[in-house]
Design goal:
The complex is a heterotrimer of chains A (about 150), B (about 675) and C (about 325). With about 150 residues, chain A is an alpha/beta fold. Chain A has one domain (about 10-135): 3-Layer(aba) Sandwich (Rossmann fold). Chain A has helices spanning about 20-30, 50-60, 80-95, 115-130, 150-154, and strands spanning about 10-15, 40-45, 65-70, 105-110. Chain A has a four-stranded parallel β-sheet, with helices on both faces. In chain A, strand 3 (about 65-70), helix 3 and strand 4 form a beta-alpha-beta unit. In chain A, helix 1 (about 20-30) crosses helix 4 (about 115-130). Chain B has four domains: about 1-140, Rossmann fold (3-Layer(aba) Sandwich); about 150-240 and about 330-345 and about 510-580, FAD/NAD(P)-binding domain (3-Layer(bba) Sandwich), CATH 3.50.50; about 345-510, FAD/NAD(P)-binding domain (3-Layer(bba) Sandwich); about 590-645, Alpha-Beta Plaits (2-Layer Sandwich), CATH 3.30.70. In chain B, about 30% of the residues lie in helices and about 25% in strands. The two termini of chain B are about 25 Å apart. Chain C folds into three domains: about 5-100 and about 150-180, Rossmann fold (3-Layer(aba) Sandwich); about 110-145, no CATH class; about 200-305, no CATH class. In chain C, about 30% of the residues lie in helices and about 15% in strands. Chain C is built from twelve helices and nine strands. Chain C has helices at about 15-20, 25-35, 50, 70-85, 90-95, 100, 110-120, 170-180, 250-255, 270-280, 290-295, 300-305; strands at about 5-10, 35-40, 60-65, 70, 85-90, 135, 140, 145-150, 160-165. The termini of chain C are far apart. The chains are: A alpha/beta (about 150), B alpha/beta (about 675), C alpha/beta (about 325). Chains in contact: A-B, A-C, B-C. Chains A and B meet through helix 1, strand 2, helix 2 and helix 3 of A and helix 3, helix 4, helix 5, helix 16 and helix 17 of B.
Chain lengths: ~150, ~675, ~325
């Protein structure tokens, strides 16, 4: 037995209100138990997903990011999921250039009735990211509080 | 940045709900409370058995007044469940309702997490996120939008008919759209209805004719919805009226044209009679069809196929109603609410080949037998085999395409009862020996168990066991010339061979094959089986996730006529509540552009599927019309300069939430 | 009245920022008349000891360009921070890492190996690498140490203002100097350039189609550029919408797409991620294959979107191998 506790990944999920968030609620109603490592941030549509959210989550300590949206053609807002898909393709390519493993940032289409898919995807992803280990980003030098504080104090 | 910060220092109250033991059994409430006390701006943290109850709501209202709280966080169930409840409570205490934030520690934590310590940690992280976020919340107002008074009902079965009539009686202008050439749906095909055995036609046809004659109802038959735009209270619907080649307003339903048709006999499958009879290219779907108007099938009409017919039908029509040049027509409707009542389809029995449907002529589906026993059916109500003889022994196999891992897992709810009804009718008309092969008898309805009881006494045989196969391989002389049903009788523990003349397959109810296209059209959800998804299985059974669109009847799941009619009534009540109020309050989660920050790059404009964004040439910036914005936030994510933001979902709020959920303790 | 003392210093940079000061042309004479330049190693002979001899805060303003990569640079900027009342990060490298910041896509070890071993013109059979200290008969020689990563100036010392650009446009410099002399500098921490994108001042702005949609991104050599039409609308990767203005949209005016040197707007947290979002969003493609084909014109997204801002980005550097 090792002294340090086993690595447990931290995953931030961005779920759209109408499909995947509802599916996650359904998983709850159906009492489908799954790994507690995923924390859901609700957005109205996966189209609201700004890649800044993904890089911020990774910098703030997430070992993985899961994005959930309505199936293609099913978007509550017609095509927000497609708009996001375009960003996702380019983002994945860019994250690869940063050496970030493909499995750490995942997109899943999960409809409102697929509570079981929420359970499966989360369990799967947590296991995968657990195997990958912690995301060891190079520490970012804490930006100095701009001199504003110094000035304010003076 | 400082724009979203409020002038007054945030004073946050956090309320942790036990939800009885729903949360408390899995989450250490005291630990969550202690943790929340350490978060910035938090003034007070309390926990309560049921936050959604009156005393629970009063708790936070009292604190708003006495402790001067200006931000509220409730950690309880899903915001889709009780966000509105707590917003109202917040507002009632004098605080803008959008100074409220919810943490979902039931559906997303206590109900899905095995380990109590981990569930507690996850709850703490979600509370932390909600507190960080609520600090940035801004006061907002709901946007009021007027509602159009008219209602669209899609589907002219008993659900749609009942909905349309009730709405029309309430004084609403209703358009009823039906894909078939007549309204009536499945119910119009039945002879009797269970358990009362009252005549289906006697109770349905008066309603059908009321639909036709009601001044507030516009009936569009042989028509399909092809486009839906807009939003709650303000839908624009496009309906395609297929060409009948007969002018509805001129035809009186005299059937002279049908008589005159160059085909002397019916040659084409009569779908209303489930293929048990033939019809001509020009035909009336069934005698009580509503509207009572003939139509011409372009697939079989010689004139429409080749242009080389004598057109005796047209000549026979004294009202010149027949018009071979007719084309499909698009009708546009403006409605405030839509009720979808598109019904079901029956299971295709050929998918279970061991039952021999399509192979043995005397294996029937239950719907075919409904037509056989129907007085206006192809045999005038005589139960006959294909050769015209009367069956002496009949086997009814239950659960065909229901409760079956290989086809449909669900129970179709109506088959036990209609099988009993058919057993009764067959026995009554033919004096045949009738065998019911069932898995379980399911008769939970008013008078249903009593009906079953009556059948038991009538001498109908019941064999508990799923039939294995229907075969013509006979082994004993008395089986000779008969079909043999092989089944295990689980009550006596033997495999039995039951020789019969007629097999009735009690086919289950399925969602329409095109349910997926229909739901996309209306932007609603459906279950994996294709049933339209209600907003909440208990508390919002006829609402959908798209406001202003309601569902009724078997399109939502298998149900019998009483339940269908009740649900249609419920959908009407919801629709009336919407249109009679006259306006809707839209969630103010709209996007907005700070014009000083906008460079006029045009990126956002193409993002909007609702054309809510336009470029203001004079100002050189893009502008969002909040009345058209539906709050998806796609333009906000795309805006390259961060000039576009979304109320309730600003970048900064989401960043705070991200940092909050990563606040592992 | 004594004239305020001003210093200029450079760290990891190309020298273009120094050129930009000279590019003030005649206006520089007004500057020289108004201030006393007491430290400018690029242009005049000053020593570090001259700075060390100053009292803390004696320099009214110090303009520092370049990113921070070596121990020497860090020592100097710390020293100048002590001596200067106001430190202005001058240019993209000081503001957000700039072109030298792209080195965070590789490691210090890989850089040294490349320079001292792998390049074809290098002959280094003994694998001699520069050392921080070397003993020679005459005593100890020292060299600055290369840090593991490149930092923006604000990640090394507190910075009062940012003057963005590669190099900062003459007008922004003149405005900043004017504001310093007039005592009208905005709130500390500000970027001394308009908080609105380049499109705002681009001559091609009025040619934008109502719906900005592109089916295929292209690289400048793949297309005959229309000299009048919006470059993004032509499928070119123009970062004008993402980038702070103040440059007069000089690059698009010269038929060159904006590469983002003036950096992010105030309300954007991560320039590259936001620019990626904006660009990918205008791609008009539905299916996976069409999306990938359309985005083929962006062969190096990380380099494209973080060209000037990798050290200031959320991810900061490539993951260690």
């Amino acid at each position: 037995m090792s002294d340090t506790p086993a690595f447990e990944p931290r995953i931030v999920a961005f779920f759209c209100n109408w499909c995947t968030y509802t599916a996650a609620d359904l998983a709850g109603t159906a009492r489908l138990t799954y790994a507690p490592n995923v924390r859901v941030v609700r957005i109205m549509c996966s189209g609201r997903l700004d890649p800044q959210f993904v890089v911020t989550a990774l910098r703030q300590g997430a070992d993985g990011v899961l994005i959930g949206g309505c199936h293609p053609g099913d978007c509550h807002y017609q095509e927000g999921n497609y708009k996001m898909l375009r960003r996702f393709h380019l983002l994945k390519r860019m994250l690869k250039q940063f050496g970030i493993d493909d499995q750490r940032v995942r997109l899943e289409w999960i409809s409102a009735s697929e509570g079981d898919k929420v359970q499966r995807v989360i369990n799967e992803m947590v296991a995968q990211v657990r195997d990958l280990g912690p995301l060891a980003l190079v520490g970012k030098p804490t930006p100095h509080p701009d001199a504003s504080e110094k000035h304010a104090a003076a | 940045m400082s724009e979203t910060m409020q002038s007054a220092e945030p004073r946050v109250g956090v309320y942790v709900c036990h939800c009885g033991i729903n949360i408390a059994a899995k989450v250490d409430i005291a630990a969550v409370v202690e943790f929340a006390k350490t978060l910035p701006y938090v003034i007070v943290v309390r926990d309560y058995k049921f936050m959604c109850s009156d005393p629970g709501q009063e708790l936070l209202q009292q604190d708003i007044k006495e402790l001067g709280l200006n931000r509220i966080v409730v950690a309880s169930c899903s915001p889709l469940m009780h966000e509105a409840t707590f917003r109202h409570a917040t507002e009632a205490a004098g605080l803008n309702q959008f100074y409220f934030q919810m943490a979902n520690i039931r559906e997303h934590v206590s109900w899905v997490t095995a380990d109590k310590a981990l569930a507690t940690r996850k709850s703490q992280a979600l509370v932390s996120a909600a507190v960080r976020r609520v600090v940035l919340n801004e006061p907002l107002e709901h946007q009021k939008v007027p509602v159009k008074p008219n209602v669209l009902v899609v589907g002219g079965g008993i659900a749609g008919i009942h909905a349309a009539l009730t709405l029309a009686n309430a004084g609403k202008q209703v358009t009823l759209v039906e894909r078939e050439p007549t309204i009536g749906g499945h119910m119009a095909k039945f002879d009797k209805t269970f358990p009362t055995l009252d005549c289906a036609a006697c109770i349905l046809t008066p309603k059908m004719s009321m639909v036709r004659s009601h001044p507030n109802i516009t009936m569009l038959t042989y028509a399909e919805v092809v486009g839906v735009e807009g939003y709650v209270g303000n839908f624009t619907v496009k309906v395609k009226k297929k060409a009948r080649y007969v002018h509805e307003e001129l035809c009186v339903g005299c059937n002279e044209c049908v008589e005159a048709c160059v085909y002397k006999e019916g040659r084409f499958t009569d779908t209303f009679n489930e293929g048990l009879s033939k019809r001509k290219p020009v035909y009336m779907p069934f005698p009580q069809a509503t509207p009572s108007v003939v139509l011409i099938d372009p697939e079989s009409c010689i004139e429409l196929k080749t242009g080389k017919c004598k057109k005796q039908c047209a000549t026979a029509c004294t009202r010149n109603a027949i018009d071979f040049t007719m084309t499909d027509e698009i009708v546009a409707l403006e409605v405030g609410a839509i009720i979808i009542a598109t019904g079901f389809q029956t299971f295709d029995a050929t998918r279970i080949p061991q039952y021999g449907y399509g192979k043995f002529p005397n294996v029937y589906t239950s719907l075919e037998v409904e037509r056989l026993v129907n007085a206006s059916g192809p045999t005038g109500g005589e139960v006959q085999l294909r050769d015209g003889s009367t069956p002496k022994r009949v086997g009814i196999i239950h659960c065909v395409g229901s409760r079956d891992e290989k086809t449909n897992r669900h129970c179709s709810r109506v088959c036990c009862m209609y099988s009993l009804k058919l057993a009764h009718l067959i026995h009554e008309r033919t004096d045949a020996e009738v065998y019911n092969l069932y898995i379980d008898m399911r008769t939970p309805g008013k008078g249903y168990e009593e009906f079953y009881d009556k059948l038991l006494k009538e001498g109908v045989n019941f064999i508990r066991g799923r039939a294995a196969e229907v075969t013509d391989w006979t082994v004993t002389p008395e089986e000779e010339g008969k079909l043999v049903i092989r089944a295990e009788d689980t009550l006596i523990g033997v495999v039995r061979r039951i020789p019969v003349d007629m097999v009735v397959l009690s086919v289950g109810l399925e969602a329409h094959a095109d349910a997926d296209e229909v739901r996309r059209l209306f932007n609603i959800s459906c279950s994996k089986e294709g049933w339209f998804l209600e907003r909440h299985p208990k508390l919002a059974p006829v609402s959908t996730f798209t406001d202003g669109i309601f569902i009724a009847g078997a399109c939502q799941g298998p149900k019998d006529i009483p339940d269908t009619v009740a649900q249609a009534g419920a959908a009407v009540a919801e629709a009336l509540a919407l249109v009679d109020r006259g306006f809707v309050e839209l969630e103010p989660n709209t996007a907005f552009i700070t014009k000083e920050l906008c460079s006029g790059c045009h990126t956002c404009i193409a993002m909007c599927p609702f054309s809510a964004i336009r470029y203001n040439k004079e100002a050189g910036v893009a502008e969002i019309n909040p009345a058209l914005c539906k709050g998806c936030g796609t333009c906000v994510a795309a805006c390259p300069s961060g000039a576009a933001q979304q109320h309730l979902f600003t970048d900064e709020q989401i960043f705070q939430e991200i940092e909050g959920v990563l606040n592992y303790v | 009245m004594t004239k305020p003392k001003v210093g200029f210093y450079w760290c990891a940079s190309c020298g273009g920022c120094e050129e930009a000061v000279v590019d003030l042309h005649e206006a520089i004479l007004d500057v020289v008349a108004a201030v006393d330049i007491v430290f400018w190693p690029c242009a005049m002979d000053f020593k570090r000891t001259d700075v060390e001899a100053m009292a803390d805060g004696e320099l009214a303003v110090c303009f520092i360009n370049g990113a921070v990569r070596t121990s020497e640079q860090f020592e100097m900027v710390e020293l100048l921070r002590r001596k200067a009342g106001v430190v202005i990060a001058f240019g993209a490298c000081a503001q957000s890492g700039g072109i030298p910041g792209l080195a965070n896509f590789t490691s210090k070890a890989a850089i040294l190996a490349n320079v001292y071993e792998d390049t074809r013109t290098t002959v280094n059979p003994h694998k001699t690498y520069p050392q921080a200290t070397v003993q020679v008969p005459e005593g100890t020689l020292t060299l600055p140490v290369l840090d593991e990563t490149v930092r923006a100036l604000g990640q090394a010392i507190p910075v009062d203002y940012y003057l963005p650009g590669c190099p900062p446009p003459a007008k922004l410099i003149a405005d900043a100097v004017g504001a310093i002399l007039a005592g009208t500098l905005p709130a500390p921490g500000s970027v001394l350039a308009p908080n609105v994108g380049v499109c705002h001042e681009c001559t091609r702005k009025e040619t934008k189609p109502e719906k900005m949609l592109v089916t295929q991104f292209k690289r400048p050599h793949q297309v005959l550029i229309d000299p009048a039409q919006c470059l993004l609308a032509q499928g070119l990767v123009c970062l004008g919408p993402d980038t702070r203005s103040g440059c007069g949209a000089a690059c698009p005016a010269g038929n060159m797409p904006c590469t983002g040197c003036l950096g992010a707007l105030d309300q954007v947290r991560d320039f590259g991620a936001k620019a990626l979002s904006g660009l990918a969003s205008v791609l008009d493609a539905g299916e996976d294959a069409a999306i990938d084909a359309g985005l083929a014109g962006v062969p190096d997204p990380a380099g494209t979107f973080y060209r000037y801002s990798l050290p200031a980005s959320e991810l900061f550097a490539k993951l260690p191998e």
